[in-house]
Amino acid sequence: MVERMTLILDMFEHRSMRLSLMEICNHSGLPRSTAHRILEQLVKLHWLEHTPTGYTLGRRALGLGGYDGTHGEIRAAAAEHLHELQLRTGMVVHLAALEGADEIFLDKIGGPFARTLESHVGQRSFAYRTTGGRAMLAWLPPEEVEALLGKRLAKAKDWTLPTLHRELNRIRRSRGLSFDRGENSTMMVGRALPSVATAIRGPQGPVAAICLCGDTNTSFATIQRIAPLVAETAARASRALSPDVQPRPRGQHRHPNRPVSRPAAASPRPA
């Protein structure tokens, strides 16, 4: 088992490398079931991380090289831009990443109002329930969304898979901007507050999201008006993290860094 684990870990030649299960099977010669079982153990032990775009080195492996992990790099790249956004808007700014089917908060910036919110760094939430989570999910192919959330949504009472696909399509049509009037924020921050979020992107897709949250006096119209600032901040953070990431030129076909749309299913959206 140790020899096979080492064989898999040796495939990751640099810290940003991502490999799919199929690629790992092809390079290692291991059967799919065997490779999947070993990968699950490596993820559980934090030697690897399983992301929506494949497997990458986890914090335990990265720590051996003096690197504090993917989340630390994201926070460092985004920090200056998050503070500027908070100063320009006076609102609470959250930075979050997608881990499997969950959103995890990496940072939280704001004035006195921020301290009254229940959200905190390290908090996990179901990605489909959050503004930032949906902003990241919108950049994934529909089949990946279904693989991540299909089983969980089959048991959920507040959302369904067709409902989520329709919402992700709306985000794609809005150039990646995810909005919430407050109906889904109570379980995250403890009260109903309007918010807007958009994804920070890397070469392989979404790596994080910036979410701007208003207070009880903030109207949804205000959130819509300042949404371009959030998009601008995320674009700058994306360039700081991955300088080679560029917007898709018009007229080109599907690109891994552009949200992928799918036909909307006829299912009522939860209130």
From TrEMBL:
Keyword Plastid (UniProt): no
Keywords (A to Z) from UniProt: DNA-binding, Transcription, Transcription regulation
Cited SUPFAM superfamilies: GAF domain-like, Winged helix' DNA-binding domain
One of the GO biological process terms: negative regulation of DNA-templated transcription
Record keyword Transcription present: yes
Signal peptide from the UniProt entry: none
Any one GO molecular-function label of the UniProt entry: DNA-binding transcription factor activity
Region (Disordered) location: 237-271
IclR-ED domain boundaries: 60-243
Comp. bias (Low complexity): 258-271
InterPro entries noted in UniProt: GAF-like_dom_sf, HTH_MetabolicPath_Reg, Tscrpt_reg_IclR_C, Tscrpt_reg_IclR_N, WH-like_DNA-bd_sf, WH_DNA-bd_sf
Domain of life: Bacteria
HTH iclR-type domain: residues covered: 1-59
Cited Pfam families: HTH_IclR, IclR_C
Name assigned to this protein: IclR family transcriptional regulator
Protein species of origin: Nocardia vermiculata
